[in-house]
Amino acid sequence: MKERTSRRTFVKQAALGAVLLPKLDTNLLASHGVSNEKDSPAATPSSSNATPTPELNFPRTFTGRNLARIAFPVGGIGTGGVELGGRGDLRLWQIFNRPESGDLLRYTFAAIHVEGAGAAPFTSILERKLLPPYDQWDYREGIRGVGALDMPRMTEAVFSSSFPVAKINFSDPHCPVDVSLTAFSPFYPVDADDSGLPIGVFEYNVKNTSQTPATVAIALSIENPCHGAKWGTNVLRSIPGSTLPTGVFMTNPTLAVDAPKSGSFALLALPEEGSSLQLTEAWPNQGIYSLEKIWKSFAADGSIPKDFASEKEKDPIGSASIRTTIAAGSTARFRFLLAWHYPNRTPEGIGWGAPKGMEKVNLGNFYATRFHNAWEVAEYTIKNLPELERRTHAFAATMRDATLPASVKDAAASNLSTLVSNTSFRIADGSFHGYEGCSNSTGGQGPGSCTHVWNYEVATSYVFPALSRSMRETSFGYATQASGHMDFRHKLPLGYEHFTLTEPDHQAAADGQMGQIVRLYLDWRISGDTPWMLKYRPAAKRALAYAWIKGGWDANRDGVMEGAQHNTYDIQFLGPTGMMQSWYLAALRASAAMAKAANDNEFAAECERIEQAGREWTDKHLFQGEFYIQQIRPVPLADVDPALLSGEINTADPHSQLGPACHIDQIIGQYMAGMAGLGDLLSADNMRTALRSIHRYNQRMGPYAMLGTHRMYAVNDEPALRICAYKKPEDIPVNPMAYSSENWCGLEHAVSATMIQYGLIDEAIQHVTDVRARHDGESRNPMDELEWGHHYARSMASWALIPALSGFRHDAVLQQLTVQPKMSTKQLFRSPWTSNTGWGELRFEANTLTLTVIAGELNFDSLVLPPECGVQTMKLGEEKITAASRRNTDSCTLQFKKEISLTPQQSLRIRYAAPNLT
């Protein structure tokens, strides 16, 4: 078996791969609208010669060739699932606890049969016609290899996506009815448990637009996925309260109890009143003629035959067919559920590091502790479906109805799908873990909940805070050693073994470790759970103090990280950088605040002293008028603690460094500090200028572009932000940092969110739009922003765009709510909001702010508004309330006499008028 290339191996191979482009011809630049003038730092950034990014709509719609790459994940958090293709096909059954690109099921499709409606009978698979290329299947099988490919299909489809809900409208000139599919799994903020159901809901809606009745049958057929040496077994089962079977239950008794595919699967149909249901637990086993026999029967009258003579003649493909007559002008619903239950998750089976001798320990799945099999999953879902569906669609609606830029909504919503991909999972004890991303065939990419990748995402903190706290509990409860060294990847099961110096990934990651401290602070403020924070603060204190060990990152405690700093670029920085300084300063500030809450005033004072020194030094020595650079500082190998190094590195002559680069991550710590409400880590003016410089210099197709010889995530004339840019050819190091010429979606989202924090709204929206336009359905899957793997965790940084623009922050420790949008509220402004205990919508319209809870609750006793909000009246539900107010040029703060508690039954409406602040 060919060995997979690791990120570190790739770095070694690519270390020499980044060079500046040859000097560009001025006339050529001008022809593309690019100025070669040396603009001042404050000048408007030069445009790039990339193709202008088109405006996007939300929900986005795709049709024709733009359906080809769409694969919409259907499943719950930590459950795996199936991908719904843009054509309406079900593909990539990743329900067995690891990613697989080739796990297909034969003869799995939905089909429709229509009689009446003033037209000839019509029968078709409910998928759009196949799209090229046609040579992607096994050459020995032609294009028949995955089954049912040369069957009638609909002429066209339009796919509309607003995760967690997908909708497909099918069309065909010969079909006498309108047909659409709505697919989803329960998914909405805060409730990770019910957003973690291993189930998909597929609802076909048929409208009879003719003047006469139409009789319609829709059948969904699925092969038993419990493969082994022998086929599985299908049986018909009923749900409680039904006297007739309602679905097909699939198992494989021949598999060992601990086999990866030992489990169960269920196909259920939920016919409406007046509809009939036909179930077939198996097709006749007649080889390649089975499909022909089934199809002829269905095309004749919409039925599926059951004429096998014995058990041996059964092929375990189950079918459920709903049939009804639809009056002229009416619509009927055909609803199906797919549920699965595969409880066997082992470190060995999923490609995750384990303590020695524990490779085969069954970690389990959290959902399997709630349900014994797939049928129980389905029963629970059916019982609670009205509310599960209401909340899921309400969440999609808050995103759809928001007045935020379309690209922001698209980026934030689409990347939430990473939580239901196999990038993420929950084991039996409920703890949440993740790979960096998913590979095509070898399982997860980058196991261990890699801290310096997951540090960028904020979807867990904001949308599912309990999952974020779970990750902090792992980092500080298990991964942090007595010395303060934190494993930046952890083994499973937890609590048995750390990485040793002889193992790969043993080194401490400076950015990962500092970032986790900031994330602990953020999760504390969101949850308001001070006892929880105090439980893990001793480990966080050790993790920060680890920077001060002999041979460490800041051994002399001067606030400057000059030691060997392993980081997300799979290298060690030698010498201070803006990136690592900003992470360090953010961790120091967060640590000081947590220390004060613990009455550890001596440690708080030390953190504040070091932070102040580091802040002043960084602005003075790393900021070069336009951006923050790296000072490369060679150091003897003997002066570096060996636990900080990975692989071979000549610390006395370090390669793969930044030098005077304009680095996209140069103030990444400020990104997270801003989300956490920690304030400016460095000079606000300097950081704003640095962000403008990133916008100016790092454009992939701009005059400062580098030759892309590494991995390519943008090609041809696609606009993107490079990781590094250099103003002059002589600035680039002889051996530049690996990955420097690449563009990573997660970094583009993070820097865009930081731009929003500092008022560069147009620039931020441009970059987010560039990212999403690259994912157009034809060239890339819009539900999959990949990096070192599909569904890459870092891209969930895109959720930061929403609180950054809406200005919504709920500090549950202070019980203070801040609502200060970065966008104008003179016109209608709507945005979703989330907290630890609820979620809903905020709305500014006609000088009125309305805060609405859709689910849960929101509690606070003070409210910080924009300074123009001079309050006139306030109503909590129908009750008039008052508050003491305090205004300045930055804010208007309301202090309520008692705690405000918002619920779905009780909104807050504040009528305001602009005051005279002079």
UniProtKB/TrEMBL annotation:
Assigned EC number: 3.2.1.-
Domain (Glycosyl-hydrolase family 116 N-terminal) ranges: 71-387
Disordered: annotated segments: 33-58
Domain of life: Bacteria
GO molecular function terms listed in the Swiss-Prot or TrEMBL record: hydrolase activity, hydrolyzing O-glycosyl compounds
Coiled-coil regions listed in the entry: none
Enzyme class: hydrolase
All residue ranges annotated as the Glycosyl-hydrolase family 116 catalytic region domain in the record: 510-801
Alphabetical UniProt keywords: Glycosidase, Hydrolase
Bias kind Low complexity: ranges: 41-54
PANTHER family, per the entry: BILE ACID BETA-GLUCOSIDASE-RELATED, NON-LYSOSOMAL GLUCOSYLCERAMIDASE
Entry protein name: GH116 family glycosyl-hydrolase
Record-level GO BP terms: carbohydrate metabolic process
Organism: Tunturiibacter empetritectus
